[in-house]
Write a structure and sequence with these properties.
The protein is α/β, with parallel strands linked by helices. It has a single domain, classed as Glucose Oxidase, domain 1, CATH 3.50.30. Helices cover 28% and strands 27% of the residues. The strands form 2 sheets. Strands 1, 2, 3, 4, 5, 6, 7, 10 and 11 form a 9-stranded mixed beta sheet that branches. Strands 8-9 form a two-stranded antiparallel sheet. Helix 4 packs parallel to helix 5. The longest helix has 23 residues. The relative contact order is 0.24. The model has no long low-confidence stretch (mean pLDDT 96). It binds oxaloacetate ion and magnesium ion. GO terms for molecular function: 4-hydroxy-4-methyl-2-oxoglutarate aldolase activity; metal ion binding; methyltransferase activity; oxaloacetate decarboxylase activity.
């Protein structure tokens, strides 16, 4: 199997169920979609940056491959937007799978108009510093969850979860079982009738 085929397409696997399939671990705390309907799914490309500084993100765009998800530890900073419309335009042109920031973003209406799925801790109009330092391609933390390059990152309306690279196929199979079990519970719920 080609490695890319291991990662399901965005939106096909609910993030809540992906987390359930990992004993309910793996969810990035406090990271939310910046527009309704944003979904992403793909292998992580990681950046660790000084809070509020996006020089490392521009460096990442020199290397990132189609379908990869840019995942950034920005120290949880909410005072400086690490990306906005112009950075998202780059991501779109390079067919990046999406952007996950443990930090902030701006230009949210334009992000939605571009259709670039962005997940972040905060929104602020204040722009980023651009001097570094940063690291690209290392293991980082996002919302308290470890992320290594190539780990499967999935995002939807509920938030973001991270599946370790070596566990993707097992977790995807488990998600299928859980979805089938939920369908049975849904049918049982729909068969309920009021009492009295
Ligand atoms: O100025 C920046 O680097 C962030 C921003 O607003 C954009 O990417 O449009
Ligand atoms: Mg801007």
């Amino acid at each position: 199997m080609q490695e890319r085929d291991v990662y399901p397409v965005a939106g096909s696997q609910p993030v809540a169920t992906v987390s359930d399939a990992m004993d309910r671990f793996g969810v990035a705390d406090g990271i939310r979609p910046l527009w309704r309907g944003a979904v992403l799914s793909g292998p992580a490309f990681t950046v660790w940056t000084r809070p509020g500084d996006n020089k490392g993100l521009h460096a990442a765009f020199e290397e990132i491959r189609r379908g990869e998800v840019l995942v950034v530890n920005g120290g949880g900073d909410s005072t400086r937007a690490l990306i906005g419309e112009l950075v998202a335009q780059k991501a779109k042109a390079l067919q990046v799978g999406g952007i996950v920031l443990d930090g902030a973003a701006r230009d949210v209406e334009e992000l939605e108009a571009l259709g670039v799925p962005v997940f972040a801790r905060a929104v602020t109009p204040a722009g980023p510093w651009k001097t570094g330092p940063f690291r690209v391609g290392c293991t980082i933390a996002v919302g308290g969850v470890p992320v290594s390059p190539g780990d499967w990152v999935v995002g939807d309306g509920d938030g973001v979860a991270v599946v370790p690279r070596g566990e993707v196929e097992v977790v995807v199979a488990r998600v299928g079982e859980l979805i089938a079990g939920e369908a049975e519970r849904r049918a049982a719920n729909q068969a309920l009738v009021p009492r009295g």
